[in-house]
Amino acid sequence: MSVADNLTAVRSRIDEACRACHRDPSDVSLLPVSKTKPPSMVEEAYQAGYRLFGENIVQDALAKSELMDADHPGLQWAIIGGLQTNKAKYVARFATEFQALDSLKVAHELDKRLQIEGRQLRVLVQVNSSGEPQKSGIAPEQAVDFAKKLAVSDSLDVRGLMTVALNSPDPKAVADCFDVVVGVQDKLRQEVNEVSDWAQLSMGMSSDLEIAVAHGSTQVRIGTDIFGARTDPAKIWHR
Ligand SMILES: *Cc1c(COP(=O)(O)O)cnc(C)c1O
Predict the structure, then answer these.
(1) Which of 7, 14, 77, 80 to mutate to test the pocket of ligand 1 (most atoms within 8 A of CB)?
(2) SS3 139
(3) Who wins on pLDDT, 224 or 234?
(4) CB 203 within 8 A of CB 181
(5) Where is the Alanine racemase N-terminal domain (predicted)?
C-alpha cells in the first residue's frame, strides 16, 4: 500500500469511528506523523492533500523544513515531542504548532523567541494521563495551576491538550487515559478560560485512534499506519 492508500484507509477508520459514536467526522482531524521518515514520504502525503506534519525531534523536523518548505506552499510542521529550552529558538523560527508543552520555562523561552521572530505558535499542553513516570506531560492535578502560570503573550496561541495514552491491550485502561484528559479540559474551561477555550484534544495514535475518537479526540496523530514501522535511528535519511 502506498502512503496515499494508507492515508485514505486511516481517514476511513476515523470517519467510521465518528459515525459509531454519532460525531461529525469533520470534527476530528488527521495529523500524519512523519518522524524518522524521508522527505519523499512527506512529499507523497503532501500530494495527497496533507499540509501539517508531526515530528518529535526538532533537528529532524528542521532538516525537512529546510529542504521542503520553499517549493511546497502551505507545508507546516507540528512538534509533538518534548523540547529542551535551548531548542526553543529553532521551533520559534519554523514550526506552526507545538503539542508537548509541559514546562513553564520552555513556554517563556518560546514566547520570548516568537516575539523576536514576530511569529505565533499554536500550543497544546501535554497531560500525563497514564501516570507512568517515564511519560512527559504535566500531572492532571497540576493542570489548573500550570495553566494559571502560563502568563505569556499572544505569541503562544494555546489551543488545548495533548496526551499519549497507556500502551495496553485493555481498551478500558486506554479509555481511562482519554477520560482523564477530558476531565482536565472541563476543569480548565471552568477555572482558566482566560488562557484558552481548551477546545483541541490531540489524542489517539495508530493503535488506539478508535478509542480516542469515542472519548472526545479532535485530532489523531498517526505514524505507523501511514508511513510504516519506525526507521532504525542509525538509518534515518539525513544522518
Ligand atoms: C510517534 C508518535 C505518534 C504516532 O504513533 P504511531 O503509533 O506510530 O501512530 C503520535 N504521537 C506522538 C507524541 C508520537 O511521538
Answers:
(1) 80
(2) coil
(3) 224
(4) yes
(5) 6-230
Provide the domain limits for residue 219: 3-235
- DSSP characters for 26-92? GGSEEEEB-TT--HHHHHHHHHTT--EEEES-HHHHHHHHHHHGGGSTT-EEEE-S---GGGHHHHH
The CATH number linked to 135 is 3.20.20.10
Least confident segment among 172-176, 192-196, 230-234 = 230-234
Alpha carbon of 194 to ligand 1 centroid (Å): 30
Q: Which atom of ligand 1 is nearest to the CA of 162?
A: 13
Total domain count, the chain: 1
Could you give the residue ranges of the DSSP H alpha helices within the chain?
3-20, 39-47, 58-68, 88-94, 104-117, 143-149, 171-191, 209-214, 224-227
